[in-house]
Design goal:
Strand order of the largest sheet: 2-1-3-4-5-8
Largest sheet: 6 strands, parallel
Order of helices and strands: EHEHEHEHHHHEHEEHHEHH
Radius of gyration: 22 Å
Helix content: 25-40%
Shape: globular
Structural class: alpha/beta
Number of helices: 12
Number of strands: 8
């Protein structure tokens, strides 16, 4: 197992590049063992230092993106200073975030930028795996969305409110995810400095962070896999899709089966699911009560930790202006409980209301001085797939983050339904072997030493 903090500090090797790995919600450093091990096998310790952040382990991830970001920033700064004292100063920095860790990483790089580290260290690679950049608000319309929002967003303490975008972050009067994507913010300014910005997103079966939020997209072409043709990347087929041309609608429709055949098939399908539905009917009330009680306990503990964190010495160094030249206030919006993501289909906007968020927002003067990357969208064309019923703030996040520019790699894991864990091989098991293809692609094609 890779050391939970870092794999090398030997000044004799004088590695000048530091890569930081940040785990996700309820995570521990061991979740990133395969990533760290593969990274070390690819790059020796005289070329690369690896820090696996450990300050947000377990229930500490309840404490909010900003608290987690401040903890990770402190870990990074302490190591940078220690290596400099030992005569092995860092000149290049890369950071990798998995799931919620991607949002924590986006916050941390903003703090590093504001403290002047990027004037001394060159940002190289910024990568996220299965990170909910737009939050976890399910694209649903109606009362059930509001109901799940009221329940789900309040079971994960600060992190839950932030993931459902119903928080008000400090004095901005806006959700933290909106601030993280604001072109005037230190967080976007920091992102633009990274030489490579890469996203890996599951196209199916990610019940924790669905495709649209991890790929920063306003459409989801992969809701009905029988209706599309996907194009794998030649050397990584069938797991990684071609980032330039990942998907297209099927042009020729398959002939409709006879009514009796369809009825028989549906009946058989229903019969096979009866035991599952019966078990769920019996277990859901008990599990809901247990989940609610545990969440209440964890939220109480989280609030206490946040209070202690706020009182901690040296915190003033992280309480810096978040926005450059100010920004207009926006109200928080409602979201939905993440566990509903796999229980309901998406809702879509009427065709006349299709959002134009896939196009760069050239009218925003705040983004004129940001470097632009010519993006070939991995989501879809508007004419081919309908626009999801996202919130106005989510559409704005898409526009702003697409203006920054990410290379988006879409992942099709077929052999396991827990794709959220499989994408990084969170544990070593045969069903997660497709995740090894994802990691190999990242190391060979996306990570620059």
């Amino acid at each position: 197992m890779v050391d939970s903090q870092r794999t090398s500090i030997d000044p004799e090797h004088k590695a000048n590049h530091l890569c930081v790995l940040v785990h996700g919600l309820w995570g521990t450093p061991t979740h990133l063992d395969y990533l760290a091990k593969s990274l070390r096998e690819k790059h020796s310790d005289d070329k690369l230092n690896i820090l696996v952040a450990k300050s947000n382990s377990g229930s500490y991830t309840y404490d909010g993106i900003e608290t987690g970001g401040e903890r990770v920033t402190q870990e990074i700064e302490e190591l940078l200073q220690e290596l400099a004292i030992e005569g092995a100063p860092i000149e290049k920095l890369s950071i990798v975030g998995y799931s919620l860790g991607g949002l924590v990483a986006r916050y941390a790089i903003g703090l590093l930028y504001s403290k002047g580290w990027f004037e001394k260290i060159k940002p190289i690679n910024f990568t996220t795996f299965a990170t909910p950049h737009l939050g976890v608000r399910t694209p649903l319309r109606g009362y059930h969305s509001q109901l799940w929002n009221a329940f789900g967003s309040r079971t994960l303490s600060s992190s839950g409110r932030q993931l459902f975008t119903i928080d008000t972050f400090r004095d901005t009067n806006r959700p933290i995810l909106s601030v993280l994507a604001d072109p005037k913010s230190i967080f976007v300014r920091a992102l633009t400095l990274f030489k490579n910005r890469n996203i890996y997103a599951n196209i199916v079966n990610d019940r924790s962070a669905p495709y649209y939020t991890t790929a920063i997209a306003s459409t989801d072409p992969y809701v009905d896999m029988d209706a599309v043709d996907i194009r794998p990347l030649k050397s990584y087929s069938p797991t990684i899709l071609d980032p330039d041309h990942p998907v297209s609608p099927k042009t020729a429709k398959e002939p409709l089966q006879p009514f009796y055949t369809r009825l028989t098939s549906t009946g058989q399908d229903l019969l096979t699911r009866i035991p599952l539905y019966t078990a769920l009917f019996a277990l859901i009330p008990v599990a809901t009560v247990a989940w609610t009680i545990n969440s209440g306990i964890q939220s109480f503990r989280s609030n206490k930790r946040i209070q202690l964190h706020e009182q901690g010495k040296g915190l003033d160094g992280y309480r810096i202006p978040l926005l450059m030249n100010g920004s207009s206030a926006r109200s928080a919006v409602s979201g939905a409980f993440r566990r509903v993501n796999s229980a309901h289909g998406h809702d879509y906007l009427p065709e006349s209301q299709d959002d134009d968020s896939d196009a760069p927002d050239d009218g925003d003067p705040a983004s004129e001085d940001l470097p632009k990357l010519e993006l070939k969208r991995t989501s879809s064309r508007k004419a081919d797939f309908p626009t999801l019923a996202l919130s106005d703030e989510q559409f704005e996040m898409i526009r702003n983050l697409d203006n920054v520019g990410f290379r988006k790699y879409l992942v099709h894991i077929r052999n396991h339904r827990h794709t959220h864990a499989a994408i990084i091989v969170r544990i070593q098991k045969p069903g997660f072997d497709e995740g090894k293809v994802v990691v190999r692609h990242w190391l060979d094609e996306a990570f620059e030493l």
